[in-house]
Amino acid sequence: MNILEVKDLKKTFKKSEIIKGLSFDLHEGEILGILGPNGAGKTTTLQMLLGILTPTSGEINIFGQDLRTHKSQILEHMNFSSTYVDLPWRLTVKENLIWSAYLYNIPDRRKRLNQIKDLFRLEKQWNQPVASLSAGQKTMVNLARSMINFPRILLLDEPTASLDPEVASYIREFFVDQRNTYNKSIILTSHNMAEVESLCDRVIILKDGLIVGNDTPSVLAKKIEFSRLRLRVTKNPLELDKLVAHHQLSISVNENISTITIKEQLLPLFLYELTKKNVHYSEISIDKPTLEDYFMKIAKGENT
Amino acid sequence: MKLYRIWGLFLRYFYNLLRTYDRLTDVFFWPLVDLVMWGLTSRYIAGSGLGSNQIILAILGGIILWIFPWRGQYEITVSLLEDLWNRNLVNIFATPVLFSEWIVTLLLSGIVKGVVSFGFASLVAIGLYATNIYVLGISLLPWAGLLMIFGWVFGLFICGIIMRYGTKIQNLAWTSIYLIAPFVGVYYPISSLPHWAQQVAHFVPASYVFEAMRASIMGHPTPLSQLFWPFILCLVYLIIALIMLYSSYREILKRGLISVE
To answer: Fewer CB atoms inside 10 Å of the end CB: C or N, chain A?
Structure first.
């Protein structure tokens, strides 16, 4: 079931069209990633979904209601976290969460605040002013605030930026658990491709204000035909070079590791021919194409 | 409008006040400084035979009542500035909070802090100069109300300008109300102004309150009905200021709240 629908969304700033007609949807219980190079329009899109930026044209329907006319009712059940937005820095973590909790009329506020404190490991920082926290701790407070109202839809703008790897992993697991347990829907932007690949059910790739990809991470990655074959050659390296030239492949050598970019379908034949030519190797690895490869290709402006 | 959201926003500004010493000093320090300086000056004038004890009350009453428009305006504009400095407007408007709820909260904050400052200043006046502004009686209530609304008008109007043009003109938050102060006649009667300035003062609702206060001190209380015109004037200004502020809000939504600074 679609919980959010965007139709032909456009945004123009000073005669420059930043968003050029986005249409997409979000299903209940889905984690949707929005990726794109800097300036592609990711944050602009999130801002429009939150009603803090007016679209030039297009429609945003959330929970079956028009965001323009039902913004307050819709935002009762949504929330967001962004690295680009600060909380009032003089207020303590507890105070920031208290005033936020009132905005959503949370029943049994004290209990919810305690839950949030535990979930986001804020015990030590609880009575400290936000200004005194590290960047990672501020991110945790922002994430905690975004969960205060049990949102049905959560918008996360680079949620794990500035978190250390252990905490980032904990947060990723937390959001997956929230989706699995409470069927929450999440839209997230991130520059961490591994994170997007592991978290998202579906990914939208934006470029120059347009959607250039919209599929599961694995399907998008498969649009890249080439894998990377890495070999530590111990015998007959010249034969390897000849084979590479014969198949018109590209090769690079770094610290005795030869990296050959090769179409997946050609791999079995290529490995067979290596054996036949008596090329020996002591190490081998095959890197299948990833979402990052797809993203890099899009960012560089190559067709897929 | 939902009361719980207004209360949430109020708490946000209240916590900030408690944790910001310069904002706390605004509530107490400046009224105290004004009272000490002007109280001593007026006491000197009264003692030197140039005036009477009524002068002390007129001047101190002016200072104390001026707190209402000053706090009303200051609270609205400085609260907006703090939201801009904190880049916190997004935290407010990416929630169910309505624009009207935010405005009501700012106005309420102005009332609360205005009343606290007024109470403090009036007690200081009693303690230091044995001058009791409460002798002016129940009239103080409508006067205070009108002055507070007058402060809101300025606050909302300046807020609209700052929202639209950003913090590069933030000085208006502290200085703007003093542009109109000469026409208000806080310390002197409007009749002492040049003719053209008296004409301007007719359209400044606060000037009627200070005239009424002085008349009351001199034993000629002004009927409350004479505050009807300034009250209507104030309401008209208030509506214009609200429209202007809302239009600025709509404008910054087109640019994106995140970009306002």
So the answer is: N
- Tokens for B156? 């909302």
Single-letter amino acid, residue A21? G
| Whole-number average pLDDT of chain A | 90
* CB contact at 8 A, A258 and A233: yes
- Does the complex come out with an ipTM higher than 0.85? no
Helix ranges, A207-301 (H): 217-222, 237-246, 267-276, 291-300
Q: How far, in Å, are B98, B142, B150, B212, B213 from residue B225 at the CA level?
A: 36, 11, 18, 11, 14
A150 CB within 8 Å of a chain B CB: no
Cα(A37)–Cα(A34) distance, integer angstroms: 10
Taking contacts as CB-CB distances below 8 angstroms, the residues of chain A near B256 are 44, 47, 52-53
Output the six-digit token pair for A176.
């997956």
Contacts of A49 in chain B (CB under 8 A): none
Residue A233, domain CATH? 3.30.70.260
Residue A304 lies in a domain: no
Nearest to A91 among B19, B93, B96 (CB): B19
Other C-beta atoms closer than 10 Å to the C-beta of A259 total 16
The identity of residue A177, as a single letter, is D
Q: Give the total number of structural domains in chain A.
A: 2
**Alpha-carbon gap, residue B17 to B5, rounded angstroms:** 18
Last residue of a domain, one of A194, A217, A240: A217
Contact call for B250 and A54, based on CB within 8 A: yes
Q: Quote the DSSP letter at residue B82.
A: H
Range of the domain at A204: 2-217
The answer to whether A46 touches A80, Cβ cutoff 8 Å, is yes
Q: How many CB atoms lie within 10 A of CB A9?
A: 23
Predicted structure pTM score:
0.83
Residue A90 touches chain B, beta carbons under 8 Å: yes
Q: Are B17 and B108 in contact (CB under 8 A)?
A: no
**Placement of tokens 């701790």 in the chain:** A137
Q: In chain A, what residues touch B15 (CB-CB under 8 Å)?
A: 88, 90-92, 95, 99
In a domain, A235, yes or no: yes
Residue pLDDT, tens place only, B60-110? 888 888 888 888 888 888 888 888 887 788 889 999 999 999 999 989 988
A98/B11 touch (CB, cutoff 8 Å), yes or no? yes
Contacts of B102 in chain A (CB under 8 A): none
Task: Round to whole Å and give the CA distance between B187 and B194.
Answer: 15
CATH number assigned to the domain comprising residue A138: 3.40.50.300
Give the separation between CA A14 and CA A300, rounded to whole angstroms. Answer: 26
Max CA separation in chain A (angstroms) = 74
CA A242, chain centre distance (Å): 41
Tokens of A140: 């945790």
Judged against a pLDDT cut of 60, whether residue A303 lies above it is answered with no
